[in-house]
């Protein structure tokens, strides 16, 4: 049997639901499952769906206390076989900690700005703001298109792909968020196109530069981007230097420009990674940070890695951040992507309940940096999704909402914020047919129609 919160967990939220997943469909007799706490029996409501049993406490639990779940032989399989019985426990966090909720939202903005006389305003940010989101994260390439500064009606301009995440487009989205009171976090790709785990293309304008010249160009680009944001009056509190940079940055790519010799298992060799990937990246990260700090001296610096699931026991996860400390890269926050259900390697589901996920967070904390999960999502529909969910979190609107709530309860106290990636994808979005996996994982079922999961972000442990 699997349980969330995990048996022995010490950081459950006071509003946590208890989920039990048996190996087959069950029936639950009267008083067959009981929850007790410091004041005795805990009153719960119970739902049984196949092999899943969910217990919802009627009242909030007490912070910093141990709770015990006793499961008896009154739980029976469809064949009337009795469960052997067990006793599980978890503890709530010592205090009612809370998470900041953030989102990356840009796709619907382009559809709005590049449609003539749009019939509907771009109100995604208003929905997010009303539902507990307080931070907006936006990425930016090294490209700039001054015509976007001087043309108020962008639909008069023929769309070109390079407009996506360019300096002016990112600034416009951040300004729209700032006007609604969002706090801002900017992601510098340090590339003229999207950069992410395993794909860190060198900007075409930087081809052929020496390592010293490249560092100078990176510093100038970061300073120029920050200066433009400052000219818009934006208070960018956090700058991410690169995006999922554990495999490289600015043309440094594990397996291509940083080839792996025979006999080297990079997944278990932090020393090799530091010498051959992370070390060469360090001067470029330092240069970008210098550029940002020349304009926003008080901004915090976040380094963001893909992080989870690709090295045994996640040994490279904390090793990356410790390596950055060793290499003298000045950063303030450790950022990670949570494994997606539509890309990347397979990990056990739900991954947040796995010991190697929780131990990875604890190992990063030991480096002395606060943690943000800057990318996560979960499908509300199966379209375009190739991975198999945990039975506790089916690809349904309710499954999506429950996943978000339980992930938040699990990481509460270990991370300081959770960021939803691609919140504004919806059925009917102009490019929806080409990206069903993004539509399935968005927080809207249609334009102007949020999914039930949206409401999770204004519930504890999220700070509102």
Short description:
The protein has 464 residues and is of the alpha/beta class. It has helices spanning 107-113, 124-130, 147-150, 167-179, 211-231, 270-293, 315-326, 355-367, 397-411, 436-441, and strands spanning 2-4, 18-21, 26-28, 33-37, 40-41, 44-49, 52-57, 66-71, 75-77, 86-91, 100-104, 135-140, 183-188, 236-241, 300-305, 333-337, 371-376, 417-421, 444-446, 449-450. It starts with a strand and ends in a 14-residue tail after the last strand.
What separation lies between the terminal Cα atoms? Answer: 35 Å
Major sheet description: 8 strands, parallel, barrel
Query: What's the CATH superfamily of the largest domain, by name?
Result: Glycosidases
- CATH top level assignment of the largest domain: Alpha Beta
What is the CATH third-level topology name of the largest domain?
TIM Barrel
Give the % helix. Answer: 25-40%
- The count of β-strands is 20
Please characterize this protein's 3D structure:
The chain has 464 residues and is of the alpha/beta class. The mean pLDDT is 94. The protein is 26% helix and 20% strand. It has helices at residues 107-113, 124-130, 147-150, 167-179, 211-231, 270-293, 315-326, 355-367, 397-411, 436-441, and strands spanning 2-4, 18-21, 26-28, 33-37, 40-41, 44-49, 52-57, 66-71, 75-77, 86-91, 100-104, 135-140, 183-188, 236-241, 300-305, 333-337, 371-376, 417-421, 444-446, 449-450. It starts with a strand and ends in a 14-residue tail after the last strand. The chain folds into 2 domains: 2-91, Sandwich (Immunoglobulin-like), CATH 2.60.40.1220; 100-458, Glycosidases (TIM Barrel). The strands form 5 sheets. An 8-stranded parallel β-barrel has the order 11-12-13-14-15-16-17-18, surrounded by 5 helices. A 4-stranded antiparallel beta sheet has the order 1-2-7-6, with no helix packed on it. The longest helix has 24 residues, at 270-293. The chain is globular and about 70 Å long. It contains 10 helices and 20 strands. Helix 5 (211-231) crosses helix 6 (270-293).
